[in-house]
């Protein structure tokens, strides 16, 4: 690997690691540079496959579908922290069928007997669930096994990599500084991880734009309980009161959770903008840069599709 053939990927969250793996699998040499590996926001994700609240839909559909396919295969093989889980998404008001329902073969109206008290509508479907600590470890191992190099440090400017063949910006919220993108905004999210009292199906409430979410995501021995979505808040510290209220909201739906032992609190910042940014440009010194950030609350869902688009953009640039 010579320096001027190397693709530098900035960011060690799900976007950076997946992009690194896809580029290495395409035969390109990659150096991943990041302050935190894995990225803290990626570690905090639930993570359920679902292209929620991200645009533009035509691209989001294609990216989500690509990831759905990869996650299905990973769930079948096992060992990567990915499993297919069935369950119900319900609402206390009538809801429309989401556009992504056509991507899921078993998507159907939930029977009223499946809805908790006070809920009036819902859907039943099966989607991939990703146990993020296990999955990010899988990605990191895969990256290293493919020969990827890792450097853990802060990057002050994308222009630092004057000798690279290209730079890929997967910095999540770090893109505010690195890409001078003031349209990127934080949406803080918090989860509580508890010991699983025997839950095998997921439940999530369609709460619209409320900051108080309800989600119950089983991952074998543990369940991830959520959550919050506080727009404009980039604070990463644990909020004890929010955690208590998350457990109360989830226990109101699933009483077995009321006394479940708390294992861990996770906080992350959804890097949100009006549209996910996957596009190419140039650093000040002329090195091609491909941006891959702004995935909001769906970065896991979009990860494989976006990474493949980055690979397409890079190979067309290097040809
Ligand atoms: C509570 C919560 C629940 C979520 N649930 C889901 C879900 O169910 N499904 C789903 O699909 N998505 C979910 N998400 C969204 C998902 O977590 C994010 O979209 C995704 O993790 C973004 O990944 P990323 O790699 O782009 O960013 P990050 O994970 O934030 O990684 C950014 C990386 O860039 C590095 N970096 C930044 N700036 C610099 C710099 N200057 N120098 C060096 N390194 C830098 C960081 O250290 C880090 O390694 C959730 C998010 C939260 C917070």
What's the helical proportion of residues? Answer: 25-40%
- Record field, number of beta strands: 14
Alpha-carbon Rg, integer: 20 Å
Tally of helical runs: 7
- Largest sheet at a glance? 14 strands, mixed
Highest CATH level, the class: Alpha Beta
CATH architect. name? 3-Layer(bba) Sandwich
Spans of 5+ residues with little confidence (pLDDT < 50)?
A: none
Question: Any idea of the CATH topology?
Answer: FAD/NAD(P)-binding domain
Number of domains: 1
Q: Overall pLDDT, averaged?
A: 96
Strand content: 25-35%
> What's the CATH H-level superfamily name?
FAD/NAD(P)-binding domain
Class from helix and strand fractions: alpha/beta
Ligand list: flavin-adenine dinucleotide
Distance between the termini: 18 Å
Name the overall outline. Answer: globular
What letter string, H or E per element, gives the SSE order?
Answer: EHEHHEEEHEEHEEEEEHEEH
